[in-house]
C-alpha cells in the first residue's frame, strides 16, 4: 500500500522533513521509490517565483533536445541548479545521468500575454518536451511551472535521500508546501512518470489506494483535455479530475468531492441543492471514484487538502502546530516531525469531508 | 385395411406427438377441456379382442368401442407441446413428446401457401452464449477490498434521459461559492437498471398486464426499487393514465400509434408525468417487421383502449413520414418532448443491426440534446407474433453491438450522454442479474427484458419450440390471450408476487456481483472487470482473454 504525506508551513522547509515524514512509515510501503513536489519555493528559487522552472531527469542527449525546444520557442534560461549527487554502489537507486532544475524567462512575444495564455504555453511546452524525450527514454519532464520543483526516482527512499544529499538540511533548497510519496506503482510497469505526486498546471495530487473506476475515468479523461495523458497509474485520474473540476469547469473545491464521491441518490434528493448535485452526478458519472483511496491535493494558490473515498477505506490524519500542518497516511509520520504538537487536535477526516488548509494555515473542515 | 393417403396430415408430420396411456386414463376430460389449441379430442376407438374360453383353443373375436383421447390431425389445431394436458391429468396418462421427424415447416407452407407465424422466441440453437463466455474476473482482494453485499450500501440506479456534458450544464458559481442553476437541462430520471420491457396490453391479457403493473407499484412503494415498466404499443387504461401510478410507466409509441389518441386526451387529467416516452422504431426479435395483433386478440377492451374496430392490427415496419435520423430527431422527439413540456425524457428503441453505430452516432451528435436513451434490442428476445422466418433468420446479437455503440461514444468522449439500454435474450438462462451485470460492464447503463417477465408469470414456452403460440390468442397460461376463460387461469396476484420476488432476488444477486469488484455504484463500461474464456469473444469485445 502507498503511504502519502504533505507538509505545509509558514516557513520554508527542507525536503529532509518530507523524507523523515515518510521514513517512519516505511513498513507500510515497499521502499521502491521516492517522489515529491515542492511548491512555493524558497532558497535559490525564491527570487524567481513568477518564472517557470523545468524539473527533469534525462540523458545528455535528452537535455539538449529539451533545451533546444525551449530556446526555439523563445524561452531564456535565467537560473540553473544541478543538485550535487553522491553515487555509490551501496545505494539502491536507478539514477538518470542528469537531474535538471532550470528556471526560464518567458518568450518576448508573451510580454503582454495574460496569465492564462502563459499557462497554456507552459503546458504545451512540457507536453512537447515529454513527447520528444520519450523515444529511448531520453528523459522525463515532470513539471515546467513557476514556483514548482518535482523530483521522482526509483529506489529506496533512504538511499535516494543520500544520493541527492537530501538528509542534510540547507538553505538552498526549500519550499512552503511539499508533497511526497514513497513507492512506484504496482498496477502497471514501473516507469518514472507513474510515481505520484502528479502535477498539472499548478495542481498536484497524490493518493493512497486504488481507483477501481480507472478505466471509466481514463476513457473519458483522455478526451477532456490535451494534458490528460500518460495514465501510467490509476492515481493520475485523481489529478485530472481535480484539474477538470476546479480549473476547466471553474467550480469551487467542494464540488471536487461531489464529483469523485457523489452522495447516494437517497441522501442527495433530500438536499436543497439536489438539482445541482444530481446534474453533477449524472454529467460526471465517468469521473466518479470507486475503490479505497485517500487523496492529498494542492491547488494553484497552494491550498492543501485531503479527502477520502466514500466508504473511508484508507487512513489519513492531519496534525498541526501554529506554523506547520502535516497530512500523513500514518500518525507516526507526524509524530516524527511534529513531536511537540497537541496530538489531541489531530484530525482524522471522515468519508464525507474535505480538510482544506490555506496560506494562513487555517484548517477548514468542509462536510459534503 | 386402409389405403395409404400420403398427403393426409398425421401426428408424425407435426412438431409434437401426444403420448396417451388408455390404461391410466379415467376419462375425466380435464385434458381436453384444458387444451386451448383443441389439439386433442375425445374419440371412440374400435378395439378387437381375441379370446378363448374352455379347455381347448377356441379363438373368438370380440369388438368393443372404447372412449379415448386422440391427437387432432390438423395443421390448424396442432399440438404446441405446451404440456397443459400433462399438468392437469390426475393420472399421468397423457403428455406431449417432441417429434424430431416433424415435417411441419414444409407441410404448413405447402398447404397454407402462407408464411408461418408464431410468437415466442428464436428457436435456433447455436454455439455457447457469448455472455456465458464472460466471467467477472477482476476480483478485489487486498489493496482494494471487496465490499460486503449484505452490509455495504449500493447505489444501483441508471439514467433515463439526455445527459449534458459538464461544460454545457446550466450552472454558475454564485457569490456564496455554490453552484446555481441558470437554465434548463433535459429531464433525466434515475431508475432501476432493469426495465420491464415493452409488452402491450393487447399482446398481454389484461390480467397479466395488471399483474405486472401491480408488481411495479409494489416494487416502488414497498421495496424501494424504482423499477419502471414500458407500456408497449397499444395504449394504457385511462384509469391508470389518470392515476399517480403513471409515474412508474414508460409510454411507448410505435409506428401504428395505437392508443395515443387516448393518451393525449388524458393529458389534462394526468396527476403525474409518465416515467418516459419510448419511440419504438424496431424490435430485436423481428427486425424490419412491424407489430401484429391478430383480430382474435382484439377484444372489446382492446378496441376501447386503442380506439380501433375488431380487425388485424398491423403496425407498419417503419414510421410513415420519417425518412431520416435527423428528421426523426426533429419531428418525433421534439413533438413528444414538447407534449410533456420538456419534463419527460424521450428515448428511442431500435433493433440491433449492423448499422446501429451509425444511428447512435447520429443521435449522440444531435445538437438539440433531446434523445434521452438508446434502447438497443438484439436477437434472442421474444415477441407476441411474427413471421417464423423473421424470428429464426433475421436480427443481430446484442452483446457486440452494445459494446460497439459504447466504444463509439468513448471514441468521441461522449459516453453516458445518451444512456444505452440493451435487451435481446438477456436472462435466457433464468439468471438476469449475471447477464445484466455483464452488459453493464460492457457499457450498458441498464437492460430491459420482456420474455423473462412472461416466464416469471408462468409462461410454459421455451426456446426449443415449446408452445410459442402467443400470436394465436390461445395462450394456455392466460398470459397472451384476450379470451376470458384462458385469462382467468392466471392469478394476477401470483404474477405480481413472482415478479416482485424475482426482482428482490436479482437485486441481491446484482450486489453479489458488485461486491467482489469493489464497486458501490454501477460499473458502467468497466470492461476491465470482465474476462473472456474465448479468444474471439475477447478480441471482439476488447476484454482480457483468459484460459
Word description of this protein:
The complex is a heterodimer of chains A (368) and B (547). Helices cover 27% and strands 29% of the residues of chain A. Chain A is an alpha+beta fold. Chain A has one domain (4-49, 147-367): Glutamine Phosphoribosylpyrophosphate, subunit 1, domain 1, CATH 3.60.20.10. In chain A, strand 16 (353-357) and strand 17 (363-367) form a beta hairpin. The mean pLDDT of chain A is 93. Chain B is α/β, with parallel strands linked by helices and 547 residues long. Chain B is 27% helix and 19% strand. Chain B is built from 16 helices and 23 strands. In chain B, the strands form eight sheets. An eight-stranded parallel sheet of chain B has the order 11-21-20-18-17-14-13-12. A three-stranded mixed sheet of chain B has the order 6-22-23, covered by helices on one side. Chain B has a two-stranded antiparallel ribbon with strand order 1-4. Classes of the chains: A alpha+beta (368), B alpha/beta (547). At the A-B interface, helix 5 and helix 9 of A face strand 9 of B.
Given helix and strand content, the structural type of chain A is alpha+beta
**What assembly state would you assign to the polypeptide chains in this entry?**
heterodimer
Largest sheet of chain A: 7 strands, antiparallel
Strands in their spatial order, largest beta sheet of chain A:
5-8-2-9-1-15-14
Q: Give the percentage of residues in beta strands of chain A.
A: 25-35%
Assigned CATH architecture of the largest domain in chain B = Alpha-Beta Barrel
Main sheet summary of chain B? 8 strands, parallel
Shape of chain B: elongated
Distance between the termini of chain A: 27 Å
CATH superfamily caption of the largest domain in chain B: Aldolase class I
Mean of all residue-level pLDDT scores of chain B: 92
Structural class of chain B: alpha/beta
Number of strands of chain B: 23
CATH architecture of chain A: 4-Layer Sandwich
Total helix count of chain A?
10
